[in-house]
């Protein structure tokens, strides 16, 4: 058995060392123009912070079980993402008017197409067919599309004010409706119908972790959910080892938050270089928001793909759609409140191109989740839509 002083033991300490070091690096470089070597070091620390976030997110998820684990990661990332948006809106000029819209829409497209497509691709390649709970995935998708339409599509079609803006009362309604719908979503996912959001077996129902949780609360075993292509005995869940202790869980949660703060802080450090590079290449300013969203959502993407490798595609969908729901349901209310004291306009309405992409995402998403299983074809369709979004961000 390796001790902490052996090379293998020291290697195991990296998830505990990298997050505070990365956060310290972000704090040291905050507000400064970094030289080339500084940007390279920030990039290395950013990669380490992303991997650290993934490690500690899985620790927390293994402790509290599904769907609470994915909810913790999604909410943590979103809250810090909101802080990043507010910070950049305060320091930005006229380009910051559309920053919230660009960032939220990028998060929706990345999660609903990029993360979903990658998870379905890995799940179908490794297990033939990716299986999940159609009820839970359908509810997540419906909530995402409703929030996106209310907050990002309607501003371009209301008649009270010209342009992609809400009036004050309209913005207040969108903010309150988004927050209330997010609260209902959390209650349904974690209390009322959480059996719809746990990974399904190919034969015999949810994973044993949920059975144990239900039995502890005296609710009995939930009804079995069998995939359409299920055969007896064809599923063996990957063992995660012993459940972490409460102390390990709290340490993991704290280091998860440190890692996410470091990811956002380091992304903020490299964003000026990205912005100047984008401007020198003559690319749209929205490209910066897309790149930063990709960096911030990297921990969730890696966690979702690793869950799909374990044949827990429902966990991947919880993380993908849940992040989209949190991104809109929490960001819009905070931005609406901040707009009271922030200068400038708040442009939320999507362009016609982005509206078409969102509509295509809605149609394809419904066709993907309604059957409770997906193949390489569905994965490929989602990834092509994601590639189209990225391409059109660079070449609108």
Automatic annotation (TrEMBL):
Which residue ranges does the record annotate as region Disordered?
221-244
**What residue stretches are annotated with the Sodium/calcium exchanger membrane region domain?**
37-190, 252-394
Query: What is this entry's stated membrane topology?
Result: Multi-pass membrane protein
Classification via Pfam families: Na_Ca_ex (PF01699)
Cellular component aspect of the GO annotation: plasma membrane
A GO molecular function assigned to this protein is: potassium:proton antiporter activity
| Keyword set, alphabetical order | Membrane, Transmembrane, Transmembrane helix
Which parts form a coiled-coil structure per UniProt?
Answer: none
Q: Where are the transmembrane segments?
A: 12-31, 37-56, 68-92, 104-125, 137-158, 170-188, 249-269, 281-298, 319-342, 348-369, 376-394
Cellular location of this protein?
A: Membrane
Chief subcellular location: membrane
Q: Is the Transmembrane keyword given for this protein?
A: yes
**Taxonomic superkingdom:** Bacteria
Listed name of the protein? Sodium-potassium/proton antiporter ChaA
What species is given as this protein's source? Streptomyces smaragdinus
